[in-house]
């Protein structure tokens, strides 16, 4: 049987690495893409059926090379997981334009660039794109002017791409994670935010990387062959309640 090939961006740790591991367990070969060279080489060296691609998703030259190196290695591309992301929290009045641009460059430009570059290869396989947004892109709360706006835009980008690429059999979906104790989240979640999430989430806890990865991998697989243009909140029920956050 032909082994399917995926690209997972931001795969050196966190949700991206867990996704790559679940997809490998399902028989995929996975190109791990990250700009953290040291961590990337370390995790790639510990795994079979992976390629390490040192790339910044906000850099068009890097993105072009990411696709070329993946195709040279795997011969095909069946799924792209746009997971790389950064979080910067702060009041709007303290958010500098540099911070705003930093967040948009990775979270939004990166998704646009990687998906656009992957289209020719995905047309060949009638493949799938899976974007990682956030519950912060579904609802507004304080401190998230750049992060939340970038993730809301990713949700719209998902729908735009799904509308346009459906005629080629390419599915484009989006997962909106609730809080997961990764390096990204723990750098911006104060104790007040942690407590508020525990209270507001019906399951009363943070999710795990693995709980996110299972849904992401499912949506990339043939089992989700009639699902496109969707946003799936994997958030312990947070989005369903409307309970607010600080
Ligand atoms: P993480 O910080 O553990 O991992 C993110 C990875 O992306 C890192 O390895 C980092 O080096 C890489 N990366 C960042 N910018 C990059 C760039 N420009 N080019 C290439 N690689 C880059 O974070 P995580 O929590 O696993 O986040 C994964 C995704 O999930 C992000 O899009 C994040 O916004 C989203 N998310 C996370 C949470 C959470 O609570 N952890 C909640 C909602 C959404």
UniProtKB/TrEMBL annotation:
Signal peptide: none annotated. Keywords: Oxidoreductase. Residues 4-183 form the Ketoreductase domain. GO terms for molecular function: oxidoreductase activity. PROSITE patterns: ADH_SHORT. SMART domains: PKS_KR. Its EC number is 1.-.-.-. It comes from the Bacteria. NCBIfam families: PRK07231.1. Belongs to the short-chain dehydrogenases/reductases (SDR) family. This is SDR family oxidoreductase. It comes from Mesobacterium hydrothermale. The lineage of its organism: Bacteria, Pseudomonadati, Pseudomonadota, Alphaproteobacteria, Rhodobacterales.
């Amino acid at each position: 049987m032909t082994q399917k090939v995926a690209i997972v961006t931001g795969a050196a740790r966190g949700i991206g690495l867990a996704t790559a591991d679940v997809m490998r367990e399902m028989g995929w070969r996975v190109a791990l893409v990250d700009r953290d060279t040291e961590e990337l080489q370390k995790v790639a060296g510990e795994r079979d059926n992976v390629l390490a691609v040192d790339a910044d998703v906000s850099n068009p030259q890097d993105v072009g090379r990411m696709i070329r190196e993946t195709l040279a290695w795997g011969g095909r591309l069946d799924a792209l997981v746009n997971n790389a992301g950064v979080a910067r929290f702060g009041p709007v009045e303290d958010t500098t334009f540099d911070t705003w641009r930093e967040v948009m460059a990775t979270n939004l430009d990166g998704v646009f660039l990687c998906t656009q570059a992957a289209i020719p290869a995905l047309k060949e396989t009638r493949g799938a794109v899976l974007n990682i947004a956030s519950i912060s892109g579904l609802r507004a709360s304080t401190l998230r002017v750049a992060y939340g706006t970038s993730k809301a835009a990713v949700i719209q980008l998902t729908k735009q791409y799904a509308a346009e690429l459906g005629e080629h059999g390419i599915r484009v979906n989006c997962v909106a994670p609730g809080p997961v104790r990764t390096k990204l989240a723990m750098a911006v979640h104060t104790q007040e935010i942690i407590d508020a999430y525990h209270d507001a989430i019906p399951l009363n806890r943070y999710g795990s990387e693995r709980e996110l990865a299972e849904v992401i991998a499912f949506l990339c697989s043939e089992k989700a062959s009639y699902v496109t243009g969707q946003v799936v909140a994997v958030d312990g029920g947070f989005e369903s309640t409307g309970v607010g956050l600080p």
